[in-house]
Amino acid sequence: MNTKKVCAVILAALLTVSVTACGKDKKKDKSKSKAESSATSSSKEESSKKDESSTSSDTKKEQESVKVYYGWGSSEDEEKYTTEIFCPEGAEFDETTLEDYEEDGSVITAMIIDEVNEYKAVSATHWHRDAYNNDPLNYPIIAQLYFDGEVDAETAAENSGCSQKVTPLGFKWNGYDVIMIETSYTFKDYGETKEVFAGVEYDLDYWKTEEGTGKVQDLTTKSLFGFDITSLGLDDLTKDQCAWIIGEIFGVDSGVANPYAVEEEKTEAVVNVDKTALVGEWIDLTSDWEDTYIFNADGTGTYISGPEYDFTYNVSGDTLTLIYDEDDTEEYKATVDGSKLVLVDKQFGDEQSFTKSTNGTETPTGAETEESAGTDEPDPKSEIIGTWKESETGIDETFTFNADGTGNYSCLSDDGTYECKFTFDFLRSDYVNIYFDDNSEGGFQFEINGNKMTVRNEYVDGLTYTRQ
Fold first, then answer.
1. Is the pLDDT of residue 267 over 70?
2. Which helix (H) or strand (E) holds 125?
């Protein structure tokens, strides 16, 4: 409100994955040309499993992408298990991912971060226990629960409350059903952990050497490929958020609208305000100070809320602009409907309603007219004449109002009793303006009941004076 109206997650560390099969590391083909390894190059011919829901490279070619390898490690299957993944709108690949991609033409681990929408997605491949020669070394809980239905004794000894929920997301990638896997467990020294993985189950071709004979066996087992998706904020990720994120990464239509999209605000129709309809006096009878606007036909006006503030004004469409001085301008959305004026502050959104006065006075209701016609209430202006003293503040402040518009003021000070003469007039029937002979001025709203007068202004609220 303007001064006239109011007085006084830390990102996780980069996941490092080491992929080794029977002592043979995945090799990179350094002979690829720049064009072949470009993030915007067309993908190679896809397998017959590709589903119709996949988005063409033409649709995605302008979107930032890298190629990710998700095989077991032999160089012969590199092409088969290398796929292009895309960066969702608003997110970005971490620098290490891009550096590795530029160097080798593909990456083993890709990390995508969206700091605005607060999520992180890290590529992950989980193989069945078979690929480990039945040795559960580093065999993660997500794979144990998914492939075996339970965790082994060694894992159970370190963790408790292991559980998993698998949810189909309703679309496919390369012919495989995309699923969301939510895994929860409690590591004994760290508390509960929740992991969300979105991806697919696929068939992995791998090999191992037969013990004793040294014969190389070509085998196939089940595996998972996808992304561990983590919220960087306080709220957990929803199913729709995970579906949209993994759909964008895989480059397929998830069937889910972007849950992070900001809806455009609907523009309300502008109702032009007739400047002539503003001319007159408007009062907010519900406000403490009976806030009043006076609009003159010549484009000038006055705002009254205790003190008075002069302004010039103009109207454009439904916007009312009040100009108090060069550096003090206010804008309101104005609505005029007969005797009712509604102003909405365009900076703060505050709304205030005013009723139009008749001949400078408040328009009475029928009931008020009948009541006032049968009573002869005293005029507050005449009731204030006399001497009034307060004893609440300890300075014995005293006002004497004379019928001729003059008065005397006194109070206790460090140097004794301070006295000053003044003149006064009325802003309205319940507000007195005081002009002291030391060139200062003030005023207050007052209410008189018998020999008690209660005053309010920007400094005091409900101070009581007693008639002397």
1. no
2. strand 119-127
